[in-house]
Each structure stands twice: as structure tokens, then as C-alpha cells.
Amino acid sequence: MKVDVSNLRRTLSEELHARAFNNFSGAGRFVRFVYLINGNVADFIDYLNVFLTSEGQTLITVDSKFATFPLAHYSLEYERHTEFITISFIQKREAPLGPGLLSEAYDENRVILPLDWARAAPMSLFHAIWLEIGGESPVGLNEYKMLDLMQARAVAANQFSDGAAEVYFAFDIDATGFSRVALYNSHMTASRLGRAVQRIVELETYRLLALLGFATVREHEPKLDAIAKRVGVLTNELGDQIKQPESHVESMLSNLSTQAADLEGIYSNASYRMAATKAYDTIVMNRLEGLRVSRLEGFQGVRGFLNRRMVPAIDSCRAFSERLRRLSERISRAGDLLQTQTEMIIQRQNRDLLISMNLSLIHI
Q1: Contact assessment for residue 118 and residue 74, using Cβ atoms and an 8 Å cutoff
Q2: 324-333: average pLDDT
Q3: Rounded to an integer, what distance in angstroms lies between the CA atom of residue 3 and that of residue 134?
């Protein structure tokens, strides 16, 4: 099939410019809902279009990848990715702000955003992120005050962009289902602050998506352990049988094929998730590098928190993938050995049969 190179070029060029940054010259907030795609995209688009119609906005289609809609006192952004969709609400206060966050920070009753509408969307709500953007950090800000503000068991924080701002991550879920992030801006320009906001929101988005792989590992690891144990027994039995003058390995080939089929089932269910986890983890690290974080006195750093809490889960995913690969190779080697042994048995049986037939002819 001939490819329309001209249209392809334009499509790829537009993709580079589709997701524009939101400049922040003052305080504001960025609230994002992340939904896992589970086959009902059309219903989700219908749900969104009903809302857009009520707001007098242009409708989107199932094929839409990105769209932004300026509404009365906020903007709504829609993004579609391979396995998830996001709806984001962006509010801006262009006027300069004194130290701290806006007075209505993290207060659903005062921000006047359709958050309940977003929660009720006909798709699996996976994650919700609430980022507040304020002025410079207030005097006397410490870990205890941030734990209370963020409703979290732990807070990780850093200065970033050469000390121009500070970011605080809860990495926890508050009473209303949000993961809270606070950004205090000392002297970042509007465009730089907008890029930083995007990196921070994406870091938190992909952080949890990456951990989906760990859930897959926990689901399939007991099955993998059982297969590895059965293959070990079969391999040992095969070794014992080969040493016998008259080995009987025919039935073992069927048992090994069953284990191979079970392993293939795990691989088909888990391989995509392991690859996605690797990709998402790379994005998280890339976004963190882009912030150029530095130490903030009195707080645990974001990188240190992720290294202790997230890296072990990612390492478990890598180890699981490696176990899958090695067990598959082990089954393949055992299968080759069984096949060879079976062929030798058949050849020996054929030889014995020919000898018996020759002896019978001699006696006739």
C-alpha cells in the first residue's frame, strides 16, 4: 500500500506541536484525572461531548489525541495516549501572589471545578493529581506543616530550576482521592514555570502508571514459581531417565509442553505491561532530570524517595521479565533434550524391530 508521505509528514509535525505548555505568570492550579482505557472510549467521548455541548464548545471525535477548551474561569484539556486518557482542569491567577498558596488550595468546595463530573466518567479512574502553584514558600515552612497541608504520611521536596522554585510531592492519596503536589515559585518566568508544571504533572502521572507492572508481577509470580518448580522436577526426572538403559520419556514431553503453554500464557499477559513499565519509568526519570532538582534543607528529596520506594518495584519487574526469559530458555533446552531422547528411543526400537524381522526370516 502506497503511503501518502506529504500527509504523514504533516501529521508527524502537528504531533510535535499538539500539546502546548500552559504558561503561568502567577498562582494557579492544575488538576488531572487519569483514566485507563478499557474498551469504552466511545462512551467516554459521548460523555465528554455532552459536557462540551453544554459549554458551547466544539465536539471531539474518538480519534482525537489532544484538545483544549478555554471555559469561563478555567481551561479543560483532553489527551489520549495508548492505554490511558487524561482530563485536566487548569486555573490561573495572573496577578502576582505573595508567599504561599491560594487560600482555596485543595478545597473542592471553593475552586468551582466540575470534579464530581470527572469522577463520574464512564471509564476506570486510575489516578487523580492536584497541583497547586503559589508564590515563594512562606517563612517557617517545615515538614510537619507540609504533612498537614498535603494530608500525607511522607512528603518529598526539592528546589529546582537552579533554586528558582520549590516542589513538594505527597506521593500519597488524600481523603478525596487526590495525590497532592505544591509548587512555590520565587522568580521563574511564565514560560519556564509552565514547562515545569507540565513536567511535574507528567512525573506524577507516569510514576503510578509504571507501578502497574508491579501489580502484574504480584499477580503472575505464584504461577511462575509453580511452573519453575514443575520444570525443575521434570528436568531432574529427565536426567535420571537418560542414565537408565531403558528410559521412558515419552510422557514427559507432554508434561513439558503443558508447562510451556502455561508459561506462554503468562508471557502474553505480562510482556506488554513489563515493556510499558520500562518506558514509563524512563519518562519519570527524564521528567525529574528536566527539573534540575537540588537539595531542600529539612526535606527528603524526590529522587531519594523514588529510589527507596519505586526503584525496588521496577527492579522486581525487570527480574520478573528475566525469569520469564530464562525459564522459557530452560523449557526449550529440556524440550530439545526430550525430543532427542525420544528420537533415540524410536531409532532403538526400529533397530530392534529390524533385528527381530531378520531373525524371523533366517528361521523360515
Answers
A1: no
A2: 84
A3: 49
